[in-house]
Amino acid sequence: MPVSMAVHAHADDLPIVAVGASAGGIGALRKLVGSLRGDVPYAMVVLQHLPPNHPSRLADLLRVWTHLPVLEAREGLQPEPGHIYVPSPDSILMLEAGVFCTRPAAGGARRPGIDTIDAFFESVAARHSPRAVAVVLSGTGMDGTAGAVSIRQAGGVVIVQDPLTAQHDSMPTSVIQRGIHDHVLPVSAIGRQLLACFEEGYTRPAASQNWESTVSATLDRILSLIRREAGFDLSGYRPSPLLWRIQQRMDVRRVRSFEDYAWLVEDEPVELESLVRGLPIHVTEFFRDADAWTAFRHEVLEPLIDENNGTPLRFWTPACATGEEAYSLAILLDEIAHESGHDVNYQIFATDAAPEAVVRASRGCYRAETCSTMDPSRLSRYFYTVDGRCRIKRFLRERMVFAVQDVISDPPIAAVDVVTCRNLLIYLEPDTIRKVLRTLNSALRMGGYLFLGASETHAADKLGFAVVSRRWNIHRKVESLGALKQNPAPSRGTVLASLVRTAAERNHVPAVLIDEECNLLRLYGDTAGILHLPAGEPSLNLLRLVDRSWIGQLRAAVSQALGSAQACAFDGGVTRDGNLSHVTVSVTPLEPASDGTLNRALVSFSTRDNGGEHPVPANLGDAGLHEGQRPWTEWEEDLRISREELDASREELQALNEELKAANADLNASNQELNEANVDLKEKIAEIKMQSDVLSSGAVMTVFLDRDQKIRWFTPAISQVIPIQPKDVGRCVSDLAPSFHDPLFASDIHAVLATGAQSDAVVSRSGDRWLLRRIYPHRSSEGVMLGVAITFADVTDRTRAEHGLERSKIWLSAQKEAFQSAMNGDSLETSLGFLLQSLLDQAEDDRRCAFYIAQGKTLHHVVGMPEEYAKCVNGFEISPESIACGLAVATGMPVITPDVLQEPRWQPWTWLALRFNYRGCWSFPVETSAGHLVGSLAMYFERPREPTALDLELATAFTHTAGIIMSQHYRAEPGAS
């Protein structure tokens, strides 16, 4: 059925085209929206990264480039087909229940990988409707990749701008490298493909049919490894933030495919450790959404404290990350107690699935920037400064209980009065969200409160909760849902995998993972005999577990490694079983944390035993030996055998020495030959270097490609036309976007490689420049095709001269034909018609032109526009108060109106422009050789437009000729004036 009939009225069924662009995306957006013709059956949403509080003119620009209505995507607005929507840079836009929803993007609320482009892509995919298309245009980074995965998983289509046409190819290349795309197209072809995607018979390309099984299987493989090795079960998390974190690590390690990265994390435990440090995602801050916390205090905490009247209160913050949310709750409770004068008896349980995060949260030590948004009085009451950081005071930390607990899979904290779980659910799949809400329901006492994040709009009221404040997402438990099912026992395969891992760690090189304060985070291998637990209070600090003689060197090595980002080592000694062993201690820094600081290091211990002989006491026979001590006769026998083996080895060594002397003589002879060849080679190198210097020193633009079209050598000047850098050697030339327009470039290279015939072409370059492009075959001395050499030379002056000469010939021919017509007595309409047709042929665009003749104080149409238009403008007054042609004839000067709808003078006549479909109007006076103004030339354009130098040159030439013909007309018909 036709595309226009495919639109359904229901909002959830409306086709959505989500377009994401970043750096360099303005040009691509202009081409895309400009290519949209007629009624489109979908709503388009254009998303571009801009900093918050930064004014955006994107909507205004889109209105100039397209005829479709362009609107701001406001809260609660329902999208309609045939419209383009643009969100504010101060908001994160999502689509929920068929309408737009927004949330603030300022400050720490903006999270890379799930906000802006990816957030909207995911919300569209959440409709579970195949009627969605994601378009990824020019941009840096990986924005849109994770969201494109969600679109594909929901059955939608992913279209990517061809990276060769993108100003910045990182965003489209990231999607292509992951195999998520359906179509890779230049921007000019995307509009047509969008219509095809919504036709009834559309079928996605066969090459992209099985993408999901590959990506999903590889992601499951990585998550299974994390679950087995680190104990994190991330299967309930949405794939978008997980994929984004994995892609971050892939870019750091320069791995392009998910399959290769899965192999990497299986081979390198340190890489797995670096990945696990970023999973799950920890994004939190003190008093995030301050208004929400104020409402939470007045509507929940203060009434709860008044009602309980000294009864102990229990609070739980699951997924506490680094502790800011839990400490925010503790600060509010202490402030309420201080202001009311009552002693509030409470305890806060803060848990997280990541042991490392729990350790950091329990220390309560934060960077000064993290606390910078807090009120100074609150900061001074609850924090003190140490080592340039802010630390929570002990009296508040003592109210907290930190523990490792996974709210998705572990049993909850029981009988709590309040749960604050803000901004965890946005990372989870819908089924997992329901499971977590049931867990939180079972943890709360009847009447207990649940405080969620502002953007977590989930149906908690259907899972035993009643709404207290929908705006601030506060709920109260009103119904118990019963006991949750216990997690199943681990499978036999999981147990075996755990045993294999334990065995590998016990037999691996002894090593420990530490933080910047030398606290142990993980042990690898068997560290017995190297680390010792001292008497007194147990400690997990490495400096207290190693030999005392190492402490100073170890502290310095850790400081140096974390400060310089380079590994360092030192030698030490340790006594084991009465024997001295030498130990090399190596400190290797891990990858930087998300804030750029180095705070993790791997300390490994390489041990070698003392190689000295064991002392044997004198006058000791076999008697009087201790239990287990060997008799002297056995030592003597071992010594005799060793001497015999030594003699045999000496004979073998002598024979080998003779063979070595003979081989050395042959080597000397070969060395002489090599010296002679080396002299010839140096001469050749000197000759090649001289030739290279000659080519590189001038403005010669040359690049050499091999048979696979990969760059092998180039001159520096070539960067003027192709953005080549030294690191691009070995890269395919088609990966680079040239600054010239040459549609036959790739095909001509293929032709030269195939036929060996030289290929020449004149190609255009930005800035109205022209280049002579030549492709030569490059053969070996035996005639074997090795590749091609491509040279460029600037031929702008010559080309302009040729074009000018060609134009002059055409103009002279047209003028001659018009003059001949006038001399033959043809009508003025016929004679000027020849000029008009030649002008339109020269312009080569969609402009319309017309000649007008002055009759007294008014103008009359001669030729060019339809009869209906002539009736509207005939008799137009020639006056300085007029517009367009009337003003041009009155003043004798051109009147250029780029956009008649923006010109105040045109207000009474905009109906005429709209009726005859033009926006730009240029008027040029026609003057005789005697200086009399006899008429005008007008040019009309469908879109707003400024004239170029060629436009003005055309107008001057043709108005001059028209002036002569009109003058002849006046002389032939005096009454006409």
UniProtKB/TrEMBL annotation:
Transmembrane segments: none annotated. One of its GO terms (biological process) is chemotaxis. Residues 636-691 form a coiled coil. Gene3D superfamilies: 3.30.450.40, Methylesterase CheB, C-terminal domain, PAS domain, Vaccinia Virus protein VP39. It comes from Cupriavidus neocaledonicus. One of its GO terms (molecular function) is protein-glutamate methylesterase activity. The keyword Methyltransferase applies. Its EC number is 3.1.1.61. Residues 219-457 form the CheR-type methyltransferase domain. PROSITE patterns: CHEB (PS50122), CHER (PS50123). This is MCP methyltransferase, CheR-type. One of its GO terms (cellular component) is cytoplasm. Residues 13-201 form the CheB-type methylesterase domain. The active site is at 22, 49, 143. CDD domains: CheB-CheR_fusion (cd16434). Keywords: Chemotaxis, Coiled coil, Hydrolase, Methyltransferase, Plasmid, Transferase. InterPro entries: Bact_Chemotaxis_MeTrfase, CheB_C, CheR_C, CheR_MeTrfase, CheR_N, GAF, GAF-like_dom_sf, PAS-like_dom_sf.
